[in-house]
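pasting for ref
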Amino acid sequence: MDFIVPPTMTTGGIPWQEVLPPRLNGSHGYYNWSPSLLIPETENVSSTEVYCDEVGFTVQVDVKHFNPEDLLVKVVGDFVEVQGQHKEQKKEGQGFTTLQFNRRYRIPKGVNIMALESAVSPEGILIISAPMLQTEGTRCLT
């Protein structure tokens, strides 16, 4: 079976024909393959920002698709772990849709782990923060 492969490029500059195995290029039965299937959706990628300065340590995670009760933040050793799991029943028919993620962030030396706090902003940003230990000449060491 021969497939007609259009001469197109993915956004990364790699011909999509070289990415997919030959038997998956083009159409096969009910399935149509196109380069757009290879391009990640940037709207669904969660963004994270990590800051550490002389004042303290802060992690900001986009969790707008989760309720605060769907989130778990805990300290394990030198890491802060963030877990999110949101489960909702499908509007039509049976079954559930589940969104989940797990992230770990190393806590830099000099951070007061006992003072670590977390909160979700009205915009859906989880903010985890902790001040530096109160010692002279404290710096953030990652």
